[in-house]
Amino acid sequence: MVTAQAKLAWPQRAALILGVLLVAWGVLDLVRGEPRLGVLHLVTGVVIGAAAVRTRVARLVGSLMGVVFLVVFAFGVSESGGAMDAGAVGNAVHLLIGFASVAVAESCAWCEQRARRAAGSS
After folding, report:
1. Contact 100, 63 (CB under 8 A)
2. How many other β-carbons are positioned within 10 Å of the β-carbon of residue 37?
3. Is 52 exposed, middle or buried (0-12, 13-18, 19+ CB in 10 A)?
């Protein structure tokens, strides 16, 4: 896939938007004095946003970040007041980001299959 924003497939655009939202959330966490979650959100936001360049990379990173955020959700819920506990809303958002990351990965795989079929029929 070409890296111009207009040429990005929709899952790549979704990964880019997810990355921007995570970076903004990370900055907000740092301002609020929550450095652990702030760093997690900043780093994962940059990684997800940078992965939007290619569908194959977005698929891999989406899978990995899905696991990361689902594990963070599990730790946040199980350790009330612990390092990964982001409160009820934050934990719910971690769950949603985990599922969104997996959805990006699955969508990228679908786009890759569609592109291979189109190339094979030409």
Report:
1. no
2. 22
3. buried
Residue with tokens 């891999």: 60
The 10s digit of each residue's pLDDT in 65-120 is 999 999 999 999 998 888 788 889 989 999 999 999 999 999 999 988 888 888 88
DSSP state of 5: G
| Interatomic CA distance for residues 116 and 69, integer angstroms | 30
Residue 59 to residue 101: CA distance in whole angstroms? 9
Q: Where are the alpha helices (DSSP H) in 4-54?
A: 10-31, 35-51
Of the candidates 8, 7, 9, 39, the one whose C-alpha atom is nearest the C-alpha of residue 26 is: 39
- The answer to whether the CB of 15 falls within 8 A of the CB of 105 is no
